[in-house]
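lol ok so funny story. i was supposed to be doing the assay writeup but got distracted and ended up predicting the structure for this chain instead. priorities right. anyway since i did it might as well share w the group, maybe its usefull for someone
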Amino acid sequence: MNKKTMNKQTILFDINETVLDLSTLKSKFIAAFGDQSAMAVWFSMLLHSSTVCVVTGVKTDFATLAGVMLESIAARRGIALSRAVREDILSGFASLPAHDDIKPALSRLRSAGYRTVAFSNSSLGLISTQMKNSGLSEYFDEIISVEKTGSFKPDPAAYQFAAQQLNQPLESLRLVATHDWDTHGALSVGMKAAYIARSQAIYHPLYRQPDIMATTMGNIVDKIIERKV
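and the output, tada:
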């Protein structure tokens, strides 16, 4: 890592939902469960399970939890998932498309001299594949997975690990995410954050509030450049 790269202001981006569009998986969940609401329930269960693992010290990985929660929601609904259907759903994560506002926003941010980092709870292998398949590899300077920590965001250790990997203090970094638990986690350890409202859900009023909020990545980038941080 050269001195010029280290001097760039660094922006970390959460990947699933923030950068990549999960809506393409809806058809798979409808085929398997009969309605698309199963996807939202499954994702909430996945986040809940990962948080329980963080708090209680259970060592696992996001892919394993994703599979377990898929089996769990199927059992709750009295559905027997075939191995083929299970793998079809889970493998879909590798081929998620980028949201329409991502490439223009990242191009502008990089042209303004910012360093961009993909930062996710998923494995390094999966994130790398996602970046390649979505055509985003050239838009990120670095990819960081939390897998080596044995934990997940919003554990403070996950954000601290990212800072160590980047050789920068936490307070110099900003996270962009569409999950309020993630921006809250970043803010709790001294990072800055920006929240992109990809859904109609309210930002949790008890969580730490980021100084940047917008509904498109273009507006997020406008505000980051305006603040010069």
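Strands lie at 10-13, 115-120, 142-145, 173-177, 192-196, 212-214. The chain has two domains: 3-21+96-227, 22-95.
back to the writeup now i swear
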